Description:
This protein is mainly α. The protein has one domain. The chain is built from 6 helices and no strands. Helix 2 (about 35-50) runs antiparallel to helix 3, helix 3 (about 55-85) packs antiparallel against helix 4 (about 90-125) and helix 4 packs antiparallel against helix 5 (about 135-165). It is elongated and about 55 Å long. The N and C termini lie far apart (about 90 Å).
Amino acid sequence: MTSATSDNAPTASATADPTVDPTIDPTARIQWRNLIWCALALAIMVWAIVSRDLWFLNFVHVVAGLLWTGIDLFMGFVMGPIIRRVDISARRAIISRLMPKMIFIMTTVSVIAPTAGWFLAVELGFLDLEFPELWWFVAALVITTIMGVQGLAILLPTNIRVYLEMHKPTPDGEKIARLMRRYVRVVASQGVMQVLIMVVMTRFATGI
């Protein structure tokens, strides 16, 4: 009588990825199809820029800016303190579902808001201002550049590192806590800068 399975057939344990916890809910993993929505949002931004329609361009800039500001403030001053205080199992459940979405959302809005804002400033003639009025534009440029660098060079890599660590069978709790402390500090600093940029934007809106 022959064996039901071949001796050369790989077992489930042999083929499974040892770095990924198979018990993790698949919906908590990175859904690459979200790139479609990111591409659509970027296409709308390009459309607004190419059309040179001031209302449309301003709408794209304001919506992206509101999302960026709101999420930064919420994550830095609401979700951050909550995540730090819950137990490791609850923290793992929250982060493993939150980070895959944040990777797409924050990267997209942090690109769209300043890019649309730059082209809007060009269309409105803010680059032609003289000092001291031009300092308002310089302030906006410096603040958004810092936030953009933080988002792409610190927050995005931290998101990915936390996500990968949380999906290991035995995640390093201390490493995750250290990364999340850095993440929350940077997001909180972005929240402060978002308030500063709102001061500058309201100055633009009411006339320099």
